[in-house]
Amino acid sequence: MNPADRRYRYPFTNCTNCGPRFTIIEDIPYDRPATTMKEFKMCPDCRKEYDDPGNRRFHAQPNACPVCGPRLELVDNYGRTVPTGDAIKKAATLLKAGKILAIKGLGGFQLACDATNPQAAQLLRDRKRRPAKPFAVMMATIDDILIHCRLSAAEEQLLMSPAAPIVLVGWDNKFSDITAGVAPGLNNLGVMLPYTPLHHLLLRETRLPLVMTSGNLSEEPIARDNEEALERLKDIADYFLRHNRDIRARYDDSVFVVENKKPVALRRARGYAPYPIHLPYTSKQILACGAELKNTFCLTRDDHAFISQHIGDMENTETLEHYENTLELYKKLFRIKPEIVACDLHPEYLPSKYAIEYAASHNLPLVKVQHHHAHIVSCMAENGIEEPVIGVAFDGAGYGTDGHIWGGEFLVADRQKYQRAGQLEYVPMPGGALAIKKTYRMALGYIYSLLGQNFPLEGLAFSKIPASELTIIKQQIAKGLNAPLTSSAGRLFDAVAAITGVCFEASYEAQAAIELEMRAPQRRTLNQSGRYPFTIDEKSGIKTVRLGKLMEAVIGDVRNNMPVAHISLKLHLTMAEIAVEMCREISRETGIKSIALSGGVFQNRLLLKLTSHKLKEAGFKVFTHHLAPCNDGGISLGQAVNANQARK
Ligand code: ZN
Ligand code: FE
User: Fold this and answer.
1) Residue 209's pLDDT is what?
2) Domains in the chain, ordered, with CATH?
3) Which pLDDT score, from 0 to 100, does residue 85 have?
4) What is the CA(70)–ligand 1 centre distance, in A?
5) How many CA atoms lie within 13 A of 251 on its CB side?
6) Closest ligand to 393 CA?
7) What spacing in Å lies between the alpha carbon of 100 and ligand 2's midpoint?
8) 49 to each of 1, 7, 31, how far by Cα in Å?
9) Residue 220: what pLDDT?
10) Dist. CA 203 → ligand 1 center (Å)
11) Which residues of 346-372 are buried (b: 16+ CB within 10 A; e: fewer)?
């Protein structure tokens, strides 16, 4: 920022304490020839700094300046250079004019547009084929963020920390000119501060909050190389602000929330991975391949668990390639040669298939870990718990040992084994995966199977459904055709979101549940009472929570025009009560007083708050996630810890 400095407005300025590291490193030891900076020969001025032990740039591997270092360029979506005196000034002008820019950041390309411009945000949604999933917004300073969002001291501190993650903070579109289309239907916003010189320069030039989202088409991995980005993003971005410093490791932005003044990881990548999580024991060298969605893998060595950065949803070959590349890099950097391979029980998960092949070709033992056991063990591991716990796994979906889809589970578990002590009642998902997107199908799954096929639907939003589809749904349920059974807590939220008319069709994972959560009052929820009825019965040692009365009561409230806010809060309170009552009964039989909460549904902050509060009130010790995500991004850690115990 200093006009007198030889690096004035140079976007690749760094010192030993800042600048890129993990994204440019190709091997250890961390020396310039083993990084993507090897292409750039330092000029005499830079060399002098690099060689001088008294200089802040002594052995700063990415050291560079405008004479010798990487250069910025602006190109259009045909890759043609845009003639400009100053690429950043020109880029800012384009952003202000409503254009969409692909910007080469630290770990890949980001897509940026003016967050206060509704047309620009909508255009980005259309082109990226991302109709509703919220975008993150970058703002120049904390003061800028305070104009739009409410921040606690702890949130402010986290935003300003060196890792500079995205933090989900309170936001009310009524009091902010950031367009509602950035996070439709939500009352929180993912915000972050600039974390590279390039971002600082651009944000100071535009003086606008900028949407800053990963440069990819829907669920593909973030684009990394210049040519690749041009090819993959040319139909999304109007211009590309790029440079010639290569990125070795794709690295998304990390996402956090602050709960009880403490940071909680939802997505762990830039600034966090591969920093290891400490294990309370010495581990064998294990490769845990992780789950399918929000995938991470985990490698262990000594008392370290290296959870990879967020890889993404393992549903296409691009992501698999990213996975394999990243795994190779980790094995090299941390000198790990797996002795055991671990994976999910689900035979169709791409990472499970990878694990089976890897174990076979390397002649290694393979440990298959039940999905929700992995969730619970992951929570135990990061909290350093060795004794048995009651694990409450409220989740979307995971492969169960009985062939059904689990997701509302109460496990008596230690790191090595578990026993399924309880579950939410099984209901059919008419149409299978279709019922996850079309939440009304899930609602009908509950209604028809628990309340009967003749249950009247008058006064509910289901009149929109064509009669032919209703008939098919009824048949699927009655005959059990393409209607897998699930005990998922996530699906229960989906169903209530459909019955209340909050969300009939989800365009991104957990949309219905998130929107239902957002409708609940956000303040003074802890001392609220009121709950829906449920019963618990027991058969062959497994307690089952019956949900028919709950559904009937929800429908009654909708028919009585009870505000959605009340219904939503009542449902949250009920889920917390279900957890408390189940834990009480299981504790009475087992004597266990420690509860671990895990599973993606606990990203619901209201549910997490109510559940842990009520459990503590009931005298339990409650453990939750902070370091590893409670969603499937934390599965690999649980797998690795379980595999070490299982093969002792
Ligand atoms: Zn130089
Ligand atoms: Fe899960």
Assistant:
1) 98
2) 1-70 (no CATH), 72-243 (3.90.870.40)
3) 87
4) 10
5) 23
6) 2
7) 34
8) 19, 13, 15
9) 86
10) 25
11) beebbbbbbbbebbeeeebebbbbbbb
Q: What is the 3-state secondary structure (H, E, C) of 250-273?
A: CCCCCEEEEECCEEEEEECCCCCC
Cα of 7 to ligand 1 centre, how many Å?
9
Q: Reduced to 3 states, what is the DSSP secondary structure of residue 336?
A: coil
Residue 437's pLDDT is: 97
Two tokens, residue 457: 């639907």
pLDDT of residue 524: 73
State the Cα–Cα distance between residues 503 and 463, nearest whole angstrom.
15
pTM: 0.96
Cα 287 to the center of its chain, rounded Å: 21
Tell me what pLDDT residue 456 has.
93
Report the largest interatomic distance among the alpha carbons of the chain, rounded to a whole angstrom: 84
- The radius of gyration computed from the CA coordinates of the chain, to the nearest angstrom, equals 25
The residues of the chain scoring below 50 in pLDDT are none
CB atoms near residue 397 (< 10 Å): 24
Q: How many A from CA of 86 to the centre of ligand 1?
A: 19
Query: Nearest ligand, CA of residue 346?
Result: 2
Name, in order, each residue with C-beta under 8 angstroms of 495's C-beta and a sequence gap of 6 or more: 439, 442, 443, 445, 446, 551
Instruction: State the distance from the centre of ligand 1 to the C-alpha of 79, rounded, in angstroms.
Output: 27
Q: Which residue has the tokens 């591969």?
A: 274
Give 4 Cα–ligand 1 centroid separation in angstroms.
16
Which tokens in the block code for residue 580?
Answer: 């408390």
Of residues 294, 398, 286, 291, the one with CA closest to residue 342: 286
Which tokens hold the place of 352?
């499970």
Tokens of 481: 């055709």
* Distance between Cα 104 and ligand 2 center (Å): 32
Ligand 2 centroid–CA 293 distance in Å is: 8
Ligand nearest to the CA of 13: 1
CA 329 – ligand 1 centroid, Å: 29
Ligand 1 center to 644 CA (angstroms): 49
The ligand minimizing its distance to the Cα of 407 is: 2
Centroid of ligand 2 to alpha carbon of 187 (angstroms): 25
User: Which ligand does the CA of 376 lie closest to?
Assistant: 2
CA dihedral 410, 415, 419, 421 (to 10 degrees): -20
CA pair distance 201, 12, nearest whole angstrom: 11
How many angstroms separate the alpha carbon of residue 43 from the centre of ligand 1?
4
